[in-house]
Amino acid sequence: MTHRCSFLLLFLFISTSTSTSTSTAVDLSTTLNISDLCLYSPNLSSLPSDRLTVLISAYHPSRSALLRRLTLSYSSLPFISSIVILWSNPSSPPPTLPPHPKLHLLPLPSSSLNLRFLPLPSPLLLSRFIAIADDDISPSPHSLSLALSLLSRRPLSLLGFFPRSHALDLHSKSWIYTLHPDRYSIVLTKLMLLRADYLHKYSCWNKLSPARAVVDRHRNCEDILMNFVAAMESGEGPLLVGGRVRDYGDPRNRGKGETEIGRVGLSSRKEHWESRGNCITEFHRLLGVMPLRYSYGKVVGEIGEQGVCRKAGRLVLCDQD
Q1: Region label for 300, one of left (φ > 0), alpha (ψ between -120 and 50) or beta (otherwise)
Q2: Angstrom distances, CA of residue 82 to CA of 122, 183, 189, 201
């Protein structure tokens, strides 16, 4: 999909509170052009830095019940300004969600993964920073609040909870995508925090057009390309945040009702890792730079008791129940 030429029919269902404490869906449907959205870069200085706009990408009808629970959870947090659901399955109607003044639903005309970073129109962008999240990820309020507070110190970097790494295969002279035990250079869009203007840079930079075409061809790697964008802007690696995040899409989930959720994710494909290594190699070739930088360690909110105690015949951390 060519971003600068594609017309998007976006239906913005914005819930507004009435005097009787009920909510009414207001249809603001309009035809937008990505080129039009690219004309206006967000003025970050006019937006609050202590709030988050949550941007959730949703596709699978099987996750509708979970999506409803997640939107209720996010909407209860005082530091969340708005929640934007991008419904990227044109062949299936979007789910019915509980109305809330913070909640906005945008059914998209395409399933392109590039639209995960759609430059938000100003009525929907109510904060300086964005949380990009999958529809099967549930962070604890404390973890999300911690990540937001860190952005004031590292505003140019990506912050995330799920790290990956790139490495050079000397034999093939190509890049590979891997999980390294003590360093990382990529954070995933499972849950990623970033500056709002990075949405604009990703979607509107002409030099990224060939790389966005790679994302569409592979149907993968949009998160890697965003890591390229942030690294080119900041000259820094991402920052890993330690915290409690429930990943319902993790294949290790075997609870009732969660097997199907775990089965539909892209990462469940066996060729997934090789394909993502190919993406890194292609992005490097097309952009002419390798901006990814390694980071080490992670930021945690607090450190509990580290003593070791014997409980029920086992040695465990003393603060472990």
Answers
A1: beta
A2: 12, 33, 18, 21
Structure tokens at 169: 């295969």
DSSP letter at 107? E
How many structural domains compose the chain? 1
Cβ within 8 Å of residue 253, ≥6 positions away:
247, 259, 261, 262
Does a structural domain hold residue 2? no
Burial 204-229 (b: 16+ CB within 10 A, else e): beeebeebbbbbbebebbbbbbbbbb
Q: Residue 231: helix, strand or coil by DSSP?
A: helix
pLDDT tens digits, one per residue of 206-231: 999 999 999 999 999 999 999 999 99
Specify whether the CB–CB gap between 283 and 225 falls below 8 A.
Answer: yes
Question: Tell me, what CATH number does 45's domain have?
Answer: 3.90.550.10
Q: Within a domain: residue 1?
A: no
Angstrom distance (rounded) from CA 64 to CA 175: 37
Sequence-ordered alpha helix ranges (H) in 76-178: 141-151
Domain span at residue 303 reads 7-317
Q: How far out from the chain centre does Cα 150 lie?
A: 17
Contact by Cβ (8 Å): 237, 157: yes
List residues with catalytic annotation.
223
**Where do the H-state alpha helices sit in 121-206?**
141-151, 197-204
- The structure tokens 């639903």 sit at 105
CA 114 to CA 91: how far, in whole Å? 18
What is the rounded CA–CA span in Å between residue 250 and residue 262?
6
The average confidence (pLDDT) of the chain is 84
Q: Can you give the pLDDT at residue 5?
A: 31
